[in-house]
Amino acid sequence: MTFICEEVINLPKGVIIADHPQDLVSFREPNCAAAVWERQLMPEFQSWLNDIPSQNLPEGRLILRVEDVPDAIVQLCEIAGTKASPQRDLLVNDIAALTELFASLVGSKYIRVRLDKITDNACSKFHKDAITARLVCTYRGTGTQYGTLEDSKEPLKIHTAPTGAPILFRGKLWPEKPDSDLCHRSPPIDGTGETRLVLVIDPVANPDKET
What we know:
Elements lengths: L1 E2 L2 H4 L5 E4 L15 E4 L5 H9 L8 E6 L3 H12 L5 H21 L3 E9 L14 E8 L4 E4 L10 E2 L6 E4 L11 E4 L10 E9 L7
């Protein structure tokens, strides 16, 4: 794992780069604002994702136990018409693995899984979520953008997570204080013809109170 100093490659303060998934445990360390697992998806798998017709990309929002994620993602694929294949199995297994990893890091038995198919400027303003923590992984299209907000409406330097690279953000409800100034947004893509497929995972403390 490499701790990147802003002076070295100008990354925002508090952003940790992980070479391996087990290194993401540093997300729990003090003064960590975000952690990026800089992985690349297999070229054949990425090509398969990029070639899926937009109407057949799986999407949905679910609150469920971690162990129920694989079956739920298969159902979303069936609903969308994402054809069964070894590549679809890889997608399902990868989402399940990221969910298990994230849940173990934040200590949550229930999670909210969101698969979003995005073609516009959804959430294009820099913000911090009103949650404890969030994992975002862009499987297709431009990755999530992040930077440090000071006195400006946008960061002076905007960073983009690589496609396929999971990034963990601390939200406003993270117990450690003071809060980091690190914010993030969905990249503005309106008018480009791009279709993004984004996975978002949040912890759920009490599923009975969630909608």
